[in-house]
Design a protein that fits this description.
Blueprint (H helix, E strand, L loop, with lengths): L1 E10 L9 E5 L2 E4 L7 E6 L4 E8 L6 H15 L6 H22 L7 E10 L2 E7 L3 E4 L6 E2 L22 E2 L10 E6 L5 E5 L1 H4 L4 H10 L2 H14 L6 E10 L1
Antiparallel strand pairs: 1-4, 1-13, 2-3, 2-5, 5-6, 6-7, 6-10, 7-11, 8-9, 8-12, 12-13
Length: about 250
């Protein structure tokens, strides 16, 4: 029987006081917490399985609240996400919930928001999705390939990255709809994926991600990626999931 191994880790990094990232893998969520040791979960490949990260907007209050709302809603909806349209509607529902919760909380959380990026694994296919600049990569042995679409303006001359996002879930006092990016690819035994917040990809270029993923699998890969981001300064919250499809 084919199965999916998900090895996940979330950490505040070295600069931020709090962790505003959250993560979902199937029914399991990790919200605004700290794990230096990767947790590996195994799921049968059959019922739709959602694995996603959400990165609460820094510099605005309630980022950890928004990211937790999103992953918990995805956890509840995950088993029903069988099509691209299902995924789009789930992301729209997450956006509506962030705005509704912000309104209910009053002025203090009026502009809370979060990015989201993830994948739904189905027998034979994978649906990658995102809003914002958290990322989804396919990780074959011959090099990582980004499946998500960054919602960023072009970086300034001399900069490799930018923290500005052009769309996110919530984040404004008045409701704003989003246009989720959803990409379908084939899925087979042996495939691997990396799903992560920009706390991993901002300090680490793709060739570093690729080198770690060529050498390691599962929990060791997750740990080595986190360690590399920390060694590069750990400038932001770091949340990642290494996903591998295997067959007993």
């Amino acid at each position: 029987m084919a199965y999916v191994a998900v090895s996940a880790l979330s950490h505040p990094g070295l600069i931020r006081e709090r962790n505003e990232d959250s993560l979902v893998a199937g029914p399991w969520t990790l919200c605004a917490t700290v794990t230096e040791n990767p947790q590996t979960l195994v799921f049968p490949l059959g019922t739709p399985l959602v694995v996603a990260v959400a990165d609460g907007l820094g510099g605005q209050p309630g980022g950890e609240v928004a990211s937790a709302l999103v992953v918990r809603r995805l956890a509840a909806a995950g088993a029903g996400l069988a099509t691209e349209e299902d995924v789009r509607e789930a992301v729209h529902a997450c956006n509506r919930q962030v705005y509704a919760s912000a309104r209910a909380a009053g002025d203090a959380l009026a502009t809370m928001g979060t990015t989201v990026a993830g994948a739904v694994l189905l027998p034979g296919s994978l649906l990658a999705f995102n809003v914002g600049d958290s990322r989804v990569f396919a990780a074959p042995r011959d090099g990582v390939l980004q499946l998500s679409v960054d919602d960023n303006p072009p970086p300034r001359p001399g900069q490799r990255t930018t923290s500005v996002v052009t769309q996110c879930l919530g984040g404004t006092p008045v409701y704003r709809a989003v246009a989720p990016h959803v990409t379908a690819v084939s899925l087979a035994v042996g495939d691997r994926y990396l799903i992560c917040t920009d706390g991993l990809t901002d300090p680490l270029p793709n060739d570093v991600l690729d080198g770690v993923l060529r050498e390691y699998d599962d929990g060791r890969a997750a740990f080595e990626l986190w360690k590399a981001a920390i060694a590069a300064g750990g400038p932001d919250n770091i949340t990642l999931a290494v996903v591998r499809v295997a067959d007993r």
